[in-house]
Amino acid sequence: MKTGKTSLRALLAALALLPFSAMADSGVYVGASFGNAGVDTDFGGIGVGDFDEDDSAIKAIIGYRFDLPAGFLAV
Fold this sequence. Notes:
single chain; alpha+beta; 55% strand
């Protein structure tokens, strides 16, 4: 299972390095992100035991950027 997560991380890192022409004046934009967090703590000194958790999260966004005379507005 770790090999799959490692491959996914490598793929996302490679995609982040690609040049994108995302600075259009107006129009639709998309985005995505991936995050991973882990905690490994030992509470043995107070009789509770240890705590070891890992978790991942993904996020996808889509929006529209309007080109207004006074500036930009995105929804």
